[in-house]
Specification:
Length: 383
Amino acid sequence: MKAQFITLLLVSLSCVWLAHAADDCPTNQKALFCYFANWAIYRNDIGAFTTNDIDPSLCTHLIYAFSGLSEYGGIQSLDSYNDVTRAGFHNFTGLKAQNPCLKTLLAIGGWNEGSRKYSVMVSDQRYREAFIDSVIRLLVQYDFDGLDFDWEYPSERGGVAADKQNFGLLLKELKQTLSKWDLLLTIAVPMSTYILSAAYDTTAINAAVDYVLIMGYDYTPVNSQVTGWLSPQNEIAATVDAWIKTVDSSKIVLGVPAYGRSFTLDNSNQNGIGVAVAGPGEAGFYTGEPGFLSYPEIQSKVQSGLYTIVKDSTAQNYYAYRKSGLDWICFETEETYTYKANYVLSKNLGGAMVWSIDTDEFRHELNSTFAVTNTLRKVLFAN
């Protein structure tokens, strides 16, 4: 009993210290959100990335991806071994002990979760209430500072037209409850003006959420039949302009990729944008995912001298093709990240977001510079 009392006392004193330390946090700076993909712990060799590899001073907000929706309509871990047994949740939120200004959020959803079960959950008030109760319990249990809702996407991929209104209702009800606990609510949305119109009640979103994170990447999907841009700035600008018609610009956060897309060309003599491909590119050694390369994997290729590199100023993207072979990559550089961070400032947006910090440069063998994240920081926090 005495030991329990001492433990509770120490926890209470720690919370008081963190609260006082947080009083000194800047209140008018841009936000820098960084996602952590929890499956990164399973990557090959030095590419494996755990919560211990996160520098808690880099980002203003860290998001743990992903949790999911259970068959009963409540939030759940998608990898309990990683999240709970190996203390992924606990270690992630524990990073605040090193940076009291840091906010940690838990993301729910993601591409693999699909849409149908979310569509069912938002369709009935009783289901929404049960979901909200489960969210509060999980966030408080593991000391998260909020929820990031990454439903991909309302009214699409098995959803129904009513999702647009029902998702708005859920966000309103969710925020009312989260606010009682001083918890944040953010949503992640795609770089698509079509889906914006079909899927999102932007008036309801503006009233309910703290930030809207635009996923400014994957413009050309991995299963594309032709080569294409990863994150073209002209398309991003159109999406941002559409959102800020009804949502405060200070709530809009622009996401950038700390990765690239690769394809295998059909013909080595046809190597530009919009040319036929045989399929996704060969998987990187660290990431092990066809058509996907982390930032350091890309740098290793393009700095080898084996590739011809092309920049497009309108898209603010690069592509590279192997001089002798069929390998083709679309990617960004520190130059384009700087451009996009300055764009965030020029549009008075709320900040920037990185998907994901575990594919940035992080180990000594990979330069340990967190080049993508630090490039954004340099511009956003210059003043």
